[in-house]
Every structure is written in C-alpha cells, then in structure tokens.
C-alpha cells in the first residue's frame, strides 16, 4: 500500500455498536478514530434489524464523532451479533475436493436450523491429515444477510464483507504476538465463548449462557433486587468489593464457568501443543477481581487482554473492531479466513445443488412402471436401486454402529458419574452441605418454550429445528404398511439428521395428509439448551432458594402455539432436596 488509507472495523451487537478506524501505509497501522454507542431496545433483536430508521440515525451519530471528526464509510468490515452467526469446528474423513461440499452440507444440517436454500456459509481448512480433515465452518441465514447488506447500501456504507467475531478476536489477540496455543475466554453480556486456538487455527469453540447478564440475574434473584439495581451492585462490588454477599453470589456463578473452562482445557491440552495461558476479553471480563480469582484456580497465567500500547487505548470493548479493521488493512495476510460476501447471495448453494443432483440420479434409476413426474426431490428412492455391494457395506456399518453404541454408553455412564461428583462438590462449596445430605427425590413439572427458526431464538428459548419427511403415497401402494410402520420408518430418517449435541423428540409434532403425500414433522433440539433452560426455570421459580441437586429430566409432550415457529415443551424433572421446592 503506497499511500495512507483508512480501514474501519464495525462490531455490531444487540445492545452496543463499536467502531474503530485505523490508518497507515506499509505494515504498521495506527489508531485514527473510535466511537461506541448504546443500542436502545427494539432497534436490533437477536441480530435482526427491527427498526431501520432508528438504526440509521444511530449510525449517522456513530460515524460523525464531531463536525471535524468523521469516520470513513469506505473499507468497512462488519461483524454481526453472535446470535445470528453459527461457528462450527469440524473433523471430516479424508475426501476429494469434489466431495467436500456434500460433507459440509451434512455439517450445516446439524448446526443451522434453517432451510438449505436460506443458508450462506464459508469455511477454512486448518489441516488435511492422513485420517482426518480439520477446519472451521461459519454460516448465517441468507435473508438476514440480505437485510444487512441492503441497510448498508441505503446508508452509503461500503461494506466489503461480513466477518466472524471469534476470527476477528483471534486477529487482534495475535497481532504482533508469537504463535502459541491459548485459551481465549470472551465473557460478554448474554454469552461466554471459550476458544482453544493459536495464530493459525481454532482447536475448539464452546458457548455458554454463563455471562454478565447471568451474574446480574443471580444477584437479582437472591437479593430480591430489580435488574438495574443488581447490575449496579455487580459493577460496584464484583468479586472483591465491600459487599461480601454480592461477592459470594458472583463467585458462585464464576465457579460454574470455571468448571467448563477446566474441562475444555483438559480435553484440548496435550504434550505436543501445550496451552500456555488464558486470555480474557469481553465487557464482563472486567468484573472487579475476576483475573485474580481465576488465577487462583489455574496453574497457567490468566490475563486481561489489552490493545498494543501504540494505539493509546486500553478499552477492551474495541478489540473486535480492531480485529475487523486489521482484516481490511492486510487482505493478503488473512485471505484464507472465512467470510460472508454479498456476492454469495445471488449464487446457488453449491452443497444444495449437489444434493439435488444426487437425488435426481435416484429418480432416473426407478423402475419404468413408476410414474415419477412431479416427484419431490426430497424423497429417497434408494430402495428401488438395489446394489449388492451396499448390503456388505450395510453389515459393516451396523457392526461399527453397535461397537460405537457400546463405547458411547460406557462414556455416558462415566461422564454421568463425574457430573454427579462435580455437582456435589459445587454444592459443598456454595451451600452448607449438611442441609442436603438427607435428601429425597421430588418430581417437578416445567414448561419450556422451543424456537425452530433463527428469527425466533432468544435466551429464554431452546434452540431447535424441524425435519419435514415427505412420503409419496405412491411409495406405499405395493407395501403392507400400517400407520405405525410408516411413522417408525420416518422417525429413522429423522434420527439421521441428529448431531451429537442434539436430541430427537420421539413423536412427530405434526402429520400432514395431502392428496399425494404424507408429511411427518419431527422436532430436533439442543440437548444442552433443554437442560440449561430447565435449570434456569427451576432457579427462577425456586423463590425460597432451597438447595437442591438436579437429577434428570423427561420430556412428556410438545404442544403447538399460535406462533408456528415456537413450540411449548412439557418437562418432568427429578431433583433431590431435604425440603419441598413447592414449584
């Protein structure tokens, strides 16, 4: 770059927007301008634009710091709220580049509860080894991307592409730093992400709801304060303030986060690639006393990240914006990183196209006496195209699955035993354990809302998706199928869509009987969300703060609501306590 140019990073969240402009020529950028504004309720919700006019007014103030100080609207790189973007670290079997799109499609189906033709995605390959291909997949709903690109055009903001917040963080953290393996903990308001990474790749990425707002809710619930008062007390006291009761409540919440971080580090640390430190970023990472408290629980160094001294700002809230601006400043250095571009909107989804082609091949192999005109391409005709090699492959696959199930059962019981031990240890540290030694089982009934579309996701709903299984009635003519066998076969197909972090509700939530086809709709939901949401609901209803141990949950039924994208899940929960919770 021969002359000085301006490069802008724009970090958009539901509650705040940060913008940072860097300038320079050659390889050394310098800080030019920065600005940060609060986003009022009702303007942006879960990453979607709800009030374009008010948002446009906000952006006008954001770029115009004063009459003399205007931030450039050229070379702008944007990251959208985490609630809108899906990030997934994948491990694929060895494959050709031609097969890669289809394999990534399977990964997309497991992480994004959207129709395939409404997904924009990008990926980065970290390594291609003999037995595994490792990389990172990022995706977002296409209609949301269209919304944002249209908004930027109308407001004359030249956005090169949409970037990913964890990747922007990595850029900022490793700028002018040596390449080493670290644990990057981003503690925000609504969520905390724990990432194991180095300068070149991500090893692991995990998100939890234990974050700044969670700390505030804990204070609010236990001290009977409104949220504004609880937030003020949290900021004032943190972990080492004068109010010991507040300190203890925040400490209890942090202890839950520490358990997650320790487990993640244990799984991802190895002799060849040792973790050297824990780095904290995000607004809630500045909680008073947090660094010192975390350091007392870890042997490796724990530190709060700050920007380079040459930038003359220690404001941790601009880290993502700085990482975004760096991507625009040095395109060559970061050219292989995944981004979402406006050009992708008009392109056909490659993986989707390949899937359609494969299913069209099945149709061409049908026996000629079948009238297949108008047959839905979603239907699997594989059984009409017998292949003797497939029988052998199926036997080997079944044997492999049987062994895998045995191993998974062993791992499950081992983890369940460890989980119970951790729960009891945690209870010992935060409650008088003698209160719950003589406990008894109690049954509770809880209702939990479930969202099946990204547009309906929020922190009070379980994330889920609907798998629609379409069955042509012509397929059923020559077979002695009863209602039960048809439903069970459909359920088996739905189970194939379930990833390791999901569960299938065992009964179809809806059956549509059209003239030529049956449609079974199956609910696939996040097993982590349902557990966390159930515990949160119990904690909210447990107004007397009676100590208890969570034992198990059982989903009794799922009900439709007036909103087609939201269902209500009825859950029976078993807890242990020495007193009745009266919920």
Mean pLDDT: 81
When the domains are counted, the total is: 3
**How many beta-strand runs?**
22
Report helical residue fraction: 25-40%
Radius of gyration computed on alpha carbons: 26 Å
Q: Beta-strand percentage?
A: 25-35%
Note the total helix count.
Answer: 13
| Tertiary shape | globular
Overall structural class, as computed from helix and strand content, comes to: alpha+beta
InterPro entries: ATPase_NBD (IPR043129), FtsA/MreB (IPR050696), PilM (IPR005883)
Pfam family, one: PilM_2
Organism: Candidatus Magasanikbacteria bacterium CG_4_10_14_0_2_um_filter_33_14
Protein name: SHS2 domain-containing protein
In short:
This protein has helices at 52-63, 97-111, 142-154, 165-173, 212-223, 227-237, 244-268, 290-295, 319-329, 350-364, 388-430, 483-495, 527-541, and strands at residues 5-12, 16-24, 30-38, 44-45, 48-49, 76-79, 86-92, 119-128, 133-141, 159-163, 181-187, 192-197, 202-208, 275-281, 302-304, 440-451, 462-472, 502-504, 510-513, 517-526, 549-560, 566-577.
């Amino acid at each position: 770059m021969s002359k000085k140019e301006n490069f802008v990073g724009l970090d958009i969240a539901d509650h705040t927007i940060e913008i940072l402009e860097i300038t320079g020529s050659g390889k050394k950028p310098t800080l030019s301008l920065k600005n940060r504004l609060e986003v009022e309720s009702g303007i942006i919700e879960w990453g979607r634009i709800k009030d374009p006019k008010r948002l446009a007014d906000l952006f006008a103030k954001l770029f115009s710091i004063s009459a003399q100080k205007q931030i450039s609207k050229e070379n702008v790189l944007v990251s959208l709220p985490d609630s809108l973007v899906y990030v997934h670290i994948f491990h694929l079997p060895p494959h050709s580049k031609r097969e890669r799109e289809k394999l990534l499609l399977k990964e997309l189906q497991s992480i994004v509860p959207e129709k395939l033709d409404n997904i924009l995605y990008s990926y980065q390959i970290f390594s291609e080894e003999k037995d595994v291909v490792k990389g990172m997949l990022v995706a977002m709903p296409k209609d949301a991307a269209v919304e944002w690109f249209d908004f930027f055009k109308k407001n004359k903001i030249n956005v090169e592409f949409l970037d990913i917040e964890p990747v922007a963080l990595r850029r900022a953290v490793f700028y002018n730093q040596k390449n080493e393996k670290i644990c990057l903990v981003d503690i925000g308001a609504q969520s905390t992400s724990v990432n194991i990474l180095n300068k070149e790749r991500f090893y692991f990425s995990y998100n939890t709801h234990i974050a700044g707002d969670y700390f505030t809710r804990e204070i609010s619930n236990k001290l009977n304060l409104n949220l504004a008062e609880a937030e003020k007390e949290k900021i004032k006291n943190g972990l080492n303030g004068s109010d010991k009761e507040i300190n203890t409540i925040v400490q209890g919440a942090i202890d839950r986060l520490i358990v997650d971080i320790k487990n993640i580090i244990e799984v991802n640390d190895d002799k060849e690639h040792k973790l050297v430190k824990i780095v904290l970023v995000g607004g809630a990472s500045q909680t008073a006393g947090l660094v010192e408290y975390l350091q007392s629980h870890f042997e490796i160094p724990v530190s709060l990240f700050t920007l380079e001294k040459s930038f003359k700002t220690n404001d941790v809230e601009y880290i993502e914006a700085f990482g975004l601006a760096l991507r625009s400043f040095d395109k060559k250095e970061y050219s292989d990183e995944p981004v979402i571009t406006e050009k992708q909107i008009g392109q056909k989804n490659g993986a989707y196209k390949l899937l359609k082609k494969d299913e069209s091949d099945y149709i061409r192999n049908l026996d000629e006496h079948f009238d297949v005109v108008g047959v839905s391409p979603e239907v699997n005709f594989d059984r009409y195209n017998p292949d003797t090699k497939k029988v052998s492959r199926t036997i080997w696959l079944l044997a492999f699955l049987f062994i895998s199930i045995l191993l998974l059962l062993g791992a499950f019981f081992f983890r369940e035993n460890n989980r119970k031990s951790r729960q009891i240890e945690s209870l010992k540290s935060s409650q008088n354990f003698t209160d719950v030694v003589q406990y008894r089982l109690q049954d509770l009934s809880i209702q939990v809302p479930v969202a099946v579309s990204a547009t309906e996701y929020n922190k009070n709903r379980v994330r889920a998706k609907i798998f629609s299984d379409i069955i042509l009635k012509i397929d059923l003519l020559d077979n002695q199928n009863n209602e039960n066998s048809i439903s069970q076969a459909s359920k088996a197909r739905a189970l194939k869509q379930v990833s390791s972090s999901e569960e299938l509700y065992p009964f179809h939530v809806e059956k549509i009987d059209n003239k030529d086809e049956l449609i079974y709709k199956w609910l696939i939901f996040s097993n982590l969300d349902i557990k966390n949401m159930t515990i949160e609901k119990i904690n909210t209803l447990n107004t007397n703060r009676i100590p208890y141990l969570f034992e198990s949950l059982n989903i009794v039924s799922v009900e439709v609501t007036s909103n087609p994208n939201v269902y209500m899940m009825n859950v029976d929960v078993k807890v242990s306590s020495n007193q009745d919770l009266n919920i």
